[in-house]
Amino acid sequence: MNRKLFFYLLAFLPFNATAQQLLTLDSCRAMALRNNKQLSVSRVKQQVATNLRKSARTKYLPHISALGGYEWTSKEISLLSDDQKAALSHLGDGVAQKVGESATNTMGQISPSTWAALGLMGITPESLQSSLSAGLGEVQTGLNGIGNRIVDAFHTDTRNMFAGSIMLTQPIFMGGAIIAMNKMADIGEQLAANSADAKLQATLYNIDQTYWQVVSLRHKQKLAQAYLDLVQKFDGDVQKMIEEGVATRSEGLSVAVKVNEAEMMLTKVNDGLVLSKMLLCQLCGLPISEQVTLAEEEVESLDVVQQIQQVDMQQVAENRPELRQLQNMVDMSRQLTNILKAGNLPQMMLTGGYLVSNPNVFNGFQRKFAGVWNVGVMLRIPLWNWGDVMYKVRASKGATAIARLELEDAREKIELQVNQSNFRVKEANKKLEMTKANTKKADENLRMANLGFSEGVISSTTVMEAQTAWLQAQSEKIDAEIDVKLSQVNLQKALGTLQ
Predict the structure, then answer these.
(1) Fewer CB within 10 Å: C terminus or N terminus of the chain?
(2) Is 321 exposed, middle or buried (0-12, 13-18, 19+ CB in 10 A)?
(3) How far apart are CA 353 and CA 170, in angstroms?
(4) pTM of this prediction?
(5) SS3 (DSSP) at 138
(6) Contact at 8 Å (CB) between 4 and 499?
(7) Which of these, 212, 207, 201, 193, lies nearest to 497 by C-alpha position?
């Protein structure tokens, strides 16, 4: 299990900060990862990006939708005019009139000899007229009924209309827009992951910096206290010598000034340590008044491991989340260009569904629900848009070029940062070796000065100079040890391996 995964697991494990007063760097990292709000935001953004990617995948699949509606109108749709309706309703009257007139004219043309012959058969003009009138009455009634039924059949009654449909749409070819959209969703998910990784490294970097700052101030506090004890003891010795007459009051005042300076230095270190621990507690998600002790606070000398790493810029480019984010932006800009290009390409879609209405005209006009299945293909071919899509594509390509230049610029700066960080690690290691040697010399110098002062061959001024040199050497040694730690953290941050 790598360290990054280990920290993630620790971040979600229950942690009782009140009971555990001794904190290590790993435990501080774990609490910081668990309580950092920006990391929580990054995790939510990753979930959002994942859901957007899943949403983009659905664009490949058929979509089904249902639509329903009701409409009331003040007038109904009429396929016949009012004159046509009146003519059809009185269809029998017109026919009877025409037939009656034609029969009367025909009877008027019959000769008397013909009527005499018909009379022998019992047919008279009166009886023939009576029979004809009776027959025409029946025809008139029948035709009027047929006309009224035709008018009723064309009665639509569309003032109350109901309609509904179920529609299926399946994209066949959308100019590559769906493919580009899905690739953008994939890149967006990678971008969210890289952003989370960048914030993770930033959080670890901040906690490491603060942790070693607290350790440095704690060692400076012990050094200030040791220096104060040293000058206070020396002040007591000088005061005794003044009382015995072997030292002047001026020497006593000089030593007293050093005591005041040591007390002031200790006060400043104490205040700085309190504020630094407050910051550390805030980063770890602890109450700022929490009393914590760090594992490296009480050690006499920090365990410093000299780390000189070989730099592989190709590996650095893969490790740095900032470069991966910029590469994501370049890739996303390219896919946006592909989406814009799809605006000039044909688009085809398969459609199918079922349409129902009331009234319906599938079997004449009927006041009931009836429907019909339908399947079709829709094709959209852009013909002319005054260069709108072309200008957008050019603008998108320009944005891609900008993103690519920013990526190259970031690579050059990161390469410089890596080389500088690697150089600082080497310099910090050299400085540490020098401060260790200076510390030994300062210890020996102080011992000899104290011995000479006790023998009366060295003045108090020389002793104070030796004390000051000892303080400076010890302080520089602490700074060098912390500088090695921080330079190693900076190098890991620059290499993208801070985990």
Answers:
(1) N
(2) buried
(3) 11
(4) 0.76
(5) helix
(6) yes
(7) 201
